[in-house]
Amino acid sequence: LSSWFPAVTTPPSLYALLPYCGQSSSGGSVTVGCLDSSYSPDSAIFTWRSNEQLITDQVKTYPPVFNKNGLYTLSSQLTIAEYQLDNIHCKVAHKSNTWPPVEIPIPVLYTKQPSVYLLLPSAEELSAQQSFTLSCLVKKFAPKEIFVEWTVNYQSIDANKYKNTEFMAESTDYSTYSMLSISAGDWDRGYSYSCVVGHETFPLKTLTRAVNKSSGKPSFVNISLVLMDTVNACQ
């Protein structure tokens, strides 16, 4: 006797498929996938997007598989440069809109802990000007989700008092810097200024660098565990 299944409508369950930990990439590229599991009826369509832009190159979608339970499974894969694997989403929809589309993000694989530098003006600038600028350079990090803010005497400074630049992309990494204008009077009074950086690769999630007139150079704050190797995303 042949098996018979009633016509049912079952929305899919969508899963991201990632390379196993330690898998080497080919020419800096990586292959990720999406698995559309247990849906019915057939005629599902996969699409891939990066920052809301449709991706059509290096996409391979396999024929659907009919399972013994009467439901279908469909898979698709995308090969992309590792440094571009940021804000990638896969989406599955039904040709007849039988069930609502389902979309999921692809987790970021590549991470790198930033280096943070607090830069001071020259001694001549410090002595000659009524105000000057502190700069906080945050260099070579991934993914690009990060926050940079400033404090004075450990109190938050309003965001409109400083300027964070746009991200600068360097191959697989990003860099940015922030500039804070301060008065020479507050500096002479010994006010302490700190650049606070938050990134997922820091064991304590934030890194703070502080400076004041008496220190004469930037100081480390709460970073005894930060000087470790880049956090491995596979951990």
TrEMBL record:
Residues 6-107, 114-212 form the Ig-like domain. Pfam families: C1-set. Signal peptide: none annotated. The keyword GTP-binding does not apply. The keyword Signal does not apply. Keywords: Glycoprotein, Immunoglobulin domain. It comes from the Eukaryota. This is Ig-like domain-containing protein. It comes from Callorhinchus milii.
